[in-house]
Amino acid sequence: METVEKQSKTWLWVIMVVVLAGIIYLLATLGGGNTTTTNPTGVAADTSPIKIGASFPMTGEAASYGEAVAAAAQLAVKEVNDAGGINGRKIEFIIEDDTCTSKKGVNAITKLAEIDKVVAMIGPVCSAAAGPGLPVAQKNNLPVVITTASAPNLTKIGDHIFRIYFSDAFQGKFAAEYIFNTLKKTKVAVLYVKNDWGQGINEVFVNRFKELGGQVVFDEGVAQDIKDFRTLVTKLRAAKPDVVYTALYPASGSAAIKQLKELAVNVPIVGGDAFDGEEIWRVKEAEGVLYTVAKTYDSPVFREKLNSFAGKEVYQSFAAFAYDAIKILAQVIGRVGTDHKAIIDELAKTVYKGAESMPVIEFGADREVKNVDFKVLIIKGGKSELYTEK
Amino acid sequence: MLPQLILNSIIAGSIYTLVALGFNLIYSTTKFFNLAHGVLAAVGAYIVFFLAQMLGVDIYLSVVAGIFVAGFIGYLLDKIVYLPLRKRKASNMVLLVASLGAFTVIQAIIAILFSSQFQTLSRNIGFEKTYEIFGGIITQTQLIIFLCGIVIMAGLLIMFKKTSFGKAIVATSDNEEVAKIVGINTNRIIGRVFFIGSAIAGLAGILVGFDTGIEPTMGMSLLLKGVIASIIGGIGSVYGGVLGAFFLGFVENFGIWQISGEWKDAIAFALLIIFLIFRPRGLINK
After folding, report:
1. Which of A264, A347, B174, B237 is most buried (CB neighbours < 10 A)?
2. Residue A243 resides in a domain
3. How many domains does chain B have?
4. What pLDDT digit, counting tens, does each position of B238-278 carry?
C-alpha cells in the first residue's frame, strides 16, 4: 500500500512539473511574440496584436475617475484600430483595476508587466497606486505614461516613467511667478502640509520665489489634521509678509484662513488646487482668497464624442489625458516598434500636436510634460470665478 | 508678540480643559479609559450643525440640544455597552476596547449622515467680535471657551464638595463594593456621571466647531490632547485636569514658537512620555 501511494505521489509531481513547464513555455512564447519584432518595416508582416496595458481604479473610491479615463483610452484604441492599427497590427488593450490603493496598484502593474508582458502602459490615476506600483514597471523596463497621478516624485522613480499630467510641483513654480510678477509681492509667508503634495509644492515654490529675487520671510509645515494655527499665525504676522501662500487641504486651510483673519493678517492669501472645491468656498473668511489650478482644454467636441462612445455621461476634464496617452504611444510604437528602450528614447523626443488635453505635448528632460499653464481663481460669495488683476 | 502667545496658550489650554474635565470625571468614577469620550464632542457639534444650519433652529436652542444629546448618547453607551460588561466583571482592557469600538461606530455614522467634509458652524452669524488684551487678540468664541472651562471646573468642584450626589461619586470611585454596601446605587451614579461627562464633551465639540470648524474625525485629536492633559495633570482629579490642560497648552505653543510648527504633536507626546517616566502621578497628587 505504502509503495503504491508513494508511486502515485511521484507521478503527481511529474505531471505538475510538466504542466507548469508547459504554461511557462506558452506564456514566454505568447508574451515574447510581440517584443521580438523590433523592426516595423520588416519583411515578414507581423499581424499579432500589440498589447498596451492600463492601471486604473475601476472600483473603490476613485471608480468614477477610472470609468472616465478607461472610456477615453478605449475610444483612442478603437480609433487607432479602426484606422488600420499600428502598421497593420491591432492594439490589444488590457485594463487592470488598481482600486486607487497601493496594494492593488502593485498587483495590477505586476500583472501587466510580468504576465501580460505589455509593450507599454498608461495610468495610474491615483498617486497612492502609482507610488508603490511604478517601481515594478521600472524594474521590468516597461515604458509608462502616467495619466493623472500628480505626486511630484513619480517620474523620479526611473527613466521609463513619463507623465502627461501636471506634477504638483508645477503649481508651486507657477504660484511663485504669479505672486512675484503679477501680484508684485516680494515678501511671502508659506504654510504647507507635511506630506508628498505639500512638501513638493513648497520646495519648488520657495526655490523659485528666491530665484526671482523675492524674500521668503516665513516657511513652516504642519501635520495634516492641525486646526490650531494661532501661534504659527502669530509668528507669521511678526515676520511681516505682504502675501501668504498656503499649500493646505480644505479643512486645515479653512482653519488657517480663519485664524489669519482673526489675528488681523490682512494681506492677500493664495492657495493651491486643493482649494478648488465647495468645502472651502463656503467658509465666509475665505472670501477673496485666490488659488491656482491647471488649465485644461475641456473641448466640448471631445466631451460629446466620449460620452456618445461610452453611452452615458462619463466625461471628466482629465479623461483627455488618457486619450492622448494612447494616441502618443500608438504614434511612437508605429515609428520605432515595440522595443522598450526604443519606445522611451522616442517618447523623450516626441512633439505631439493635435492633442485633446493640451495644444502640444512634449516631455522635458525630467520626463514631465512641458508647457503646463495655470489659471488663477478667486473665492467669491460661496463660489469661485476666474480672477483678473485690475 | 508675547501677549498673543500667552493668549494662544490659554485658548488651547481652555479647549483641552473642557475635554479633560469630562474625561477625568468618567475615569475617576469608572477607572477605565473611555475613548468614546472623543466622539461625543463630534456628536454635540453635528447636532448643532444639523439643527441650526440645516433646519434653521435657533442657535441657542440648538446648542442646548447638542449638549443634551451628547450627554444622552454617553448615558446610553453606559447602559447598552459598558454596564452589561461591568456586570460580567469584564476587565478595564475589555471596556477600553469596547469604547474604541463605540468611538469608531459613532464616527462612521456621523460621516455617513453628514459626509466627511469639513464644515463650519459660524457661517450666517456674521463676523466675530474680537477683543484686544494687552495687544493680543482673542475672539468672542475663544473667550466663551475660556469662561466655560472655568465655570465647569468650579461647578464640578462644588458638586463634589457640597452635594450628596457628588459625595456618592467620590464614594463610588473610592470603592464601588463598599459604596454599594452602604446603600448607594452605583450603577445609577455611574450612568449620571456618563451623562454629565459626555455633555461636557458635547459642549467642547460645539465650541471648537464655532471656533475652527467640524468634521467627523474631530473627536480623536481632541481626545488625545484631553487624555495627555489628564495624565500630566494627575488623572482623576478636577484641578489636575485643568492644570495639565493649561500646562500642555503653554508648552505646545511656546515650543512651536521656538522651533517649527510641525513639532506640535511631537512636543505634546514627548511631554506625556516625560511625565509617564518621571512623574506618573501627574502634577497633582490625588
Report:
1. A347
2. yes
3. 1
4. 899 999 999 999 999 999 999 888 899 999 999 999 999 99
